[in-house]
Amino acid sequence: MRITSASFLLATIFSVLMDMSSSAWAAEANLTFQNAAQETQYRTLIDEFRCPKCQNANLAGSDAPIAQDLKYKTYELVKQGQSNDQIRHYMITRYGDFISYKPPIKRSTWLLWFAPPLTLFLAFIVWFLRLRVRKSVVTAPLSAHETWRLNQLLDDESKASAKQELRDDR
């Protein structure tokens, strides 16, 4: 079996990519903790912090270089014995409220916290009012003239359909 230069190039690229992806896993696997509580604390925090580059991924799910650095910094702070609040304060001071999936409730984050429930509440009110209007329109009784006109239209329609059926039968 001959190995062509194209297959050799593909094999080389594949092995380099596999090596790069395994280095991220290896870095994560090399972290040692003094006890299970520290490891739990670390895992909780990297799940809670957002990757500044990826924006829609937490640190645990991101392989971006900045995420790797933040994971390592979180690991160092956990190893130093800092509490979750101290680590959160450090990260928020350095990267802003954006780093946290649970930003604090303060004036600058009111829109973030209160817009979704307010929008849901307003949508419920609009839905309720539309349902109420629709129900009142459907249940309104017809006047005597409207009833007579409706019956006349229905009779005309039934006569027209009967004529059509007779034509179709011929």
Describe this entry's structure for a reader:
There is one protein chain. The chain has 6 helices and no strands. With 170 residues, it is mostly helical. It folds into 3 domains: 31-104, Helicase, Ruva Protein, domain 3, CATH 1.10.8; 110-138; 140-170. Helix 2 packs antiparallel against helix 3 (65-79). The longest helix has 29 residues, at 110-138. The protein is elongated and about 90 Å long. It starts with a helix and ends with a helix. 9% of the residues are buried. Mean pLDDT is 80; it is low at 21-26.
Quickly give the structural class: mainly alpha
Summarize the helix and strand pattern as letters.
HHHHHH
Large-scale geometry: elongated
End-to-end separation in angstroms reads 80 Å
Total beta strand runs: 0
User: Strand fraction band?
Assistant: under 5%
Assign the CATH topology of the largest domain.
Answer: Helicase, Ruva Protein, domain 3
Q: State the name of the first-level CATH class of the largest domain.
A: Mainly Alpha
Number of helices: 6
Give the overall pLDDT as a whole number: 80
Overall tally of structural domains: 3
The CATH superfamily of the largest domain bears the name Cytochrome C biogenesis protein
Key words describing this protein structure:
single chain; mainly alpha; Helicase, Ruva Protein, domain 3; 3 domains
Write the layout of secondary structure elements.
Blueprint lengths: L4 H25 L6 H13 L16 H15 L4 H12 L14 H29 L5 H26 L1
Q: What would you say about this model in short?
A:
The protein has 170 residues and is an all-alpha fold. It contains six helices and no strands.
